[in-house]
Amino acid sequence: MPQQSSSFSSAHDVATEFDQWAQSGRGDRMADGHRYATEQLLEGLAIASDSVVLDAGCGIGWVLNDLIGEHIASGVGIDLSAEMIDIASSRCTLPHLKFAVSNSAQTPFEANRFSHIVSIESSYYVPDPLETLREWLRITQPGGRLGLVIDLYQDNPASPYWVEALSLTAHNLSVSQWRSLLLSAGWTQVGDRQVPLPGQIKPDAFIPSPYFPNYDIYRSYCDAGSLLLTAQKLAPPSE
Ligand SMILES: C[S@@+](CC[C@H](N)C(=O)[O-])C[C@H]1O[C@@H](n2cnc3c(N)ncnc32)[C@H](O)[C@@H]1O
Question: What is the pLDDT of residues 74-105, one digit of tens each?
Answer without folding.
Answer: 999 999 999 999 999 999 999 999 999 999 99
